[in-house]
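Hi everyone,

Forwarding the result from last night's run.
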Amino acid sequence: MPPATPPPQTYRVKSFGCQMNVYDGDRMAELLAEQGLSPAAEGADADLVVLNTCHIREKAAEKVYSDIGRLKRDDGSSPLIAVAGCVAQAEGEEIMARAPAVRMVVGPQAYHRLPEMLSQASAGKRVTNTDMPAETKFDALPKRRRSGASAFLTVQEGCDKFCTYCVVPYTRGAEISRPWQALIDEAERLVEAGAREITLLGQNVNAWSGKDAKGRAAGLDGLIRDLAKLPDLQRIRYMTSHPNDMTEGLIAAHGEVEKLMPFLHLPVQAGSDRVLKAMNRSHTAESYLRLMDKVRAVRPDIALSGDFIVGFPGETEAEFAETLALVDSLAYAQAFSFKYSPRPGTPAATMDGQIAAEVMDDRLQRLQDALNRDQLAFNEATVGKNCRVLVERRGKFAGQVLGKTPWLQSAIVEADVAIGTMLDVEITAGGPKSLTAVERIGVSA
């Protein structure tokens, strides 16, 4: 057993992967602050380092071990190390066996127990908790007391879809929806702490369901409409959605709720119906296109975003061409694309027809060329438009600020304004990744 150590005084949480991990990382930081710990200063060693991991990317577990190795100090010592998140859930015992420096392993449904685990680790124990308790962890988390101009709010966790390539049902558990009142309360606290924009998060966020203040059944569109009533909340977004849960009510909300931003992230993964069926996706290319047509009918200026996997087992060149054709027909404003990589324990990992790496590399390059072409075209098409930018941070140079447009584009503006300002601008230039804009003097709020 490792020797006992003095209780840590400083911490650093490093989150990898999706926005839900960012949210979880923030909540873990709040838990540690409740125990009297302070965030380590920039560039300083922390007494406790939490690696909040993601299992979606290729070789995610191996990257965790590399990160653990890099934490060793010049004198050979290491901080107190905790591995959290989805890699912890999937490979907790293996991590403990392979990485003696790790003192705590905690899964994404158990991190509310960090304080008691930290006490045990400081006493010299090595502790693992990858339980998925029936009670919600959110009840045990501290109340939100801090926020940036834009904040994340997890409303739904877990997944019941069981796509054949995905580990989420095994690492995050079954779909659960947080109660309506708990979400309204947390949103109110975020707004009081300075949030002007809230992004609702979930593995399948549009599967959220609950009962509103009057006991009526509500879906995500109902929750959005109630959140829009918060007077100081300016913007609402949500991700990540599943096509199967894109209801008529949610589509209508895009045309009716002014605070719901014109942006939709709706992963399709592939353009071939055979590949989609092999992935256990519940939509076809045609049904997905119909959904997009409905959304554009109520919100013509909406920015579309998606996820794509190339090289799924058995994917032929002709089937990949169907994905390129779907991309061409939709003109995404932005998208994420990846090479298929097998995840242990998932059905796709043992399927016949695994694609050669060089074939996947070629297909990914061609897909990204098409997606980058469309993102640049979308950005260039916004030049000359007037819109509001939510200022989120200072720019690289003095007198610059960076913020997000309604379409989730990054905009660089020459302006001397506070973080959190809703700045009226004219877009003057569009590049591959960001925009340039100028302040419209006299109309800012």
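The chain has a mean pLDDT of 92.

Cheers,
N.
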